[in-house]
Backbone:
């Protein structure tokens, strides 16, 4: 189990799958960060003036006759090298060079162009002069090779003596490096890309940690504590063709609804559910299309199905099925119409639809009425399964009222939209009325999500021109129980209410 907001699983192991999902989800952020950083590196390289360097190497020498032994002389010279590094970068040497060369620079400007380094455990000292003008760099280095030797000799000669205790010898004459030493395009751009990549990854991880929505079936199972019955992939055609089981029978989305049907049949084998409420936390999470497609897959499996449009505030099922919804459930409950007059068969299978009817002023009271309970009880005698599309749980109480009289409910959760808090509140709302929660459906999962499987490639070469019932022959289909004709449905419904 993964703790909320962390990348550490139980047992202190890094949750690499979640880390990978965070990177995939924010790949464009990482790409933008890398591109911007690379652009910055290129711009910095382009506007930075080229710098040329000239080097000169000195040998620090100590006369052996003044220091006992050559070894001790080398040790003494190595210690003096550190002092000469500071002297090479001093204002005193810069003044001496300017006096000789008469360059239009200040001593402070010149000292910034000179750097010195003593080679480790040697008596060699390398001085580098860097300038935007390659010839001036070489001129300064040549002047430095003379003035530096003179300055050290002056400083290391004891009073009353003409011989310095330490002297400098030029071992490598001033040499100009022909190519610029700065800027370094590959290094600059490489470092910029690395910084941009790290920054992009950091932003991706922070976005993931701050995201409070449900994005995977594992997160849904962890947060809900219940079963995840199916992960329904997003299909861009669902907006215009919500009945995906009918219009694209072999699509991954259609197969996911068949998986949902199968899982529901195994929730309680000994006591199969007959009345099922389909709801969600908030609008636009796909509950109505889920209810309609679920009814279709039960019907194509040979079940006698009743789909009730009980979302009286924003009814959509009738529109999805291209049915007349002006007269229906509300008219039956109000005693304005008989059930057999408003119950509408759909398709060639065993699906019947009870539209919402006219919008009442008191939906909650109407759905919680004794007439609604009697209607459900009578329909149990006729249909194998009754699927009720209800309003969302959080804005109104309609769904909770119906769930209390149903065998159970499934809660549709929209991927990357439903938050953990909304999910918890929905669960508490159903538990408050002692409603049984069969499980949860993760809806609108991105097509490239790792939880979406390629069902469309697993159809045994079925002919796409066949009807939807023929297309799924043998794929998640229960044994057929026959499909009663439409007139039989209407007669049975009428007899049950009399």
Residues:
């Amino acid at each position: 189990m993964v703790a909320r907001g962390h990348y550490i699983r139980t047992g202190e192991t890094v949750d690499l799958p979640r880390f990978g999902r965070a990177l995939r989800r924010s790949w464009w952020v990482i790409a933008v960060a890398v591109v911007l950083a690379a652009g910055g590196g290129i711009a910095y390289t382009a506007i930075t003036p080229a710098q040329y360097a000239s080097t000169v190497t000195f040998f620090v020498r100590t006369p052996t006759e003044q220091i006992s032994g050559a070894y001790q002389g080398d040790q003494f010279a190595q210690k003096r090298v550190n002092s000469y590094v500071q002297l090479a970068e001093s204002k005193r040497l810069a003044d001496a060079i300017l006096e000789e060369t008469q360059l239009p620079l200040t001593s402070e400007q010149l000292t910034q162009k000179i750097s010195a380094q003593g080679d480790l455990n040697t008596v060699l000292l390398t001085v580098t002069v860097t300038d935007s003008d390659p010839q001036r760099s070489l001129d300064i280095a040549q002047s430095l090779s003379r003035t530096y030797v003179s300055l050290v000799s002056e400083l290391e000669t004891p009073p009353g003596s003409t011989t310095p205790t330490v002297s400098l010898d030029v071992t490598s004459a001033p040499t100009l490096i022909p190519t610029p030493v700065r800027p370094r395009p590959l290094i600059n751009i490489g470092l910029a890309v690395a910084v941009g990549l790290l920054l992009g990854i950091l932003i991706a991880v922070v976005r993931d940690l701050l995201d409070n929505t449900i994005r995977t079936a594992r997160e849904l199972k962890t947060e809900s504590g219940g079963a995840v019955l199916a992960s329904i992939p997003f299909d861009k055609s669902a907006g215009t063709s919500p009945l995906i089981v009918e219009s694209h029978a072999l699509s991954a989305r259609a197969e996911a609804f068949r998986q949902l049907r199968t899982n529901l049949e195994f929730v309680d084998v000994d006591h199969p559910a007959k009345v099922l409420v389909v709801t969600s936390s908030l609008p636009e999470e796909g509950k109505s299309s889920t209810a309609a497609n679920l009814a279709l897959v039960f019907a194509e499996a040979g079940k006698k199905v009743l789909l009730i449009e009980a979302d009286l505030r924003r009814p959509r099922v009738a529109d999805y099925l291209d049915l007349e919804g002006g007269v229906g459930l509300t008219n039956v409950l109000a005693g304005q119409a008989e059930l057999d007059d408003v119950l509408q068969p759909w398709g060639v299978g065993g699906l019947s639809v009870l539209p919402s009817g006219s919008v009442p002023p008191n939906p909650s009271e109407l759905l919680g009425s004794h007439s609604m309970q009697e209607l459900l009880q009578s329909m149990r005698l006729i249909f194998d399964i009754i699927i009720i599309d209800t309003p969302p749980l959080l804005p109104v109480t309609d769904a909770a009222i119906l769930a209390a009289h149903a065998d159970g409910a499934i809660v549709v959760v929209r991927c990357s939209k439903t938050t953990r808090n909304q999910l918890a509140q929905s669960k508490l709302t159903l538990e408050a009325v002692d409603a049984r929660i069969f499980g949860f459906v993760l809806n609108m999962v991105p097509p490239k999500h790792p939880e979406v499987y390629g069902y469309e490639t697993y159809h045994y070469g079925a002919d796409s021109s066949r009807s939807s019932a023929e297309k799924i022959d043998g794929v998640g289909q229960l044994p057929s129980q026959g499909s009663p004709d439409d007139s039989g449905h209407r007669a049975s419904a009428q007899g049950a209410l009399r």
About this structure: Residues 217-497 form a domain with the Rossmann fold fold (CATH 3.40.50.300).
